[in-house]
Amino acid sequence: MELQFLGSGDAFGSGGRFNTCFLVRDRQGAFLIDCGASSMVALRKFGVDPNEIRAVMVSHLHGDHFGGLPFFILDAQLVSRRTTPLVVAGPPGLGTRLAAAMETFFPGSSRVERRFTLEVREMQVGETSNIEGADVTPYLMKHPCGAPPFALRIGVDGKVICYSGDTEWVEALGDAARGADLFVAEAYFRDKKVKFHLDYETLVAHLPAIGARRVILTHMSPDMLGCREAFACEAAEDGMVVSI
């Protein structure tokens, strides 16, 4: 199984990076974790066929994490000519917010007839759902976005991936990532403590108790990008591929 960082940036494109979007290739094909606003550009840049993606799992409802979905869905209808089903799973409120985004960007686009089935599933905190062959458990984080923000623990092909989403430190993040084969964690600042975001020093202090086998940092601000050589953890780059 492989994970490719199609987008590892923050909301503002710091370092010229795309918004959050991770591609996971497993035995059944491929799925996305988050689909930020720039994700269609990233898919094209890295030569990914959108039709091979069977599901999109969304951590929270900020534009740099789900804002690419209207473009992905319209591409599937008008350009890629998709015929296979697509599942989009995320927090409660995803269906309403996605329809509103589509109507804002492309009026009428949420109601047209498509050649493929689009299924929106709203997950509940602490409940494991099978999303097209992946067992996904959402954990409640602390990051206001008009809907519950999630860290996602994903079990697939006998491995566990945890993605923190955006959040300040909460104990539930430790639960979500404990013993994971790969923990992809936000590290927005190096040591600056701000509400609703995770800093590197706080994350590192908790890693021994978490016991993840591999940790990769993402969603970094210019402050973090300027000192990557000092990290004890790996740092994501757009296009980077890791084996799990």
Tags for this model:
28% strand, seven-stranded mixed β-sheet, globular
Secondary structure: helix percent: 10-25%
The biggest beta sheet is recorded as:
7 strands, mixed
Number of domains: 1
Strand line-up across the major sheet: 6-5-4-3-2-1-14
Mean pLDDT: 97
Kindly describe this structure.
The protein is α/β, with parallel strands linked by helices. It has a single domain (2-238), classed as Ribonuclease Z/Hydroxyacylglutathione hydrolase-like (Metallo-beta-lactamase, Chain A), CATH 3.60.15.10. The protein is 23% helix and 28% strand. The chain is built from seven helices and 14 strands. It has helices at residues 39-45, 63-66, 69-78, 94-105, 171-177, 200-210, 222-225, and strands at residues 2-7, 21-26, 29-33, 53-57, 86-90, 118-122, 129-131, 134-140, 150-156, 159-163, 182-186, 215-218, 234-235, 241-243. The protein has a seven-stranded mixed beta sheet. The longest helix is centred in the middle third of the chain and has 12 residues, at 94-105. The radius of gyration is 17 Å and the shape is globular. The termini are close together.
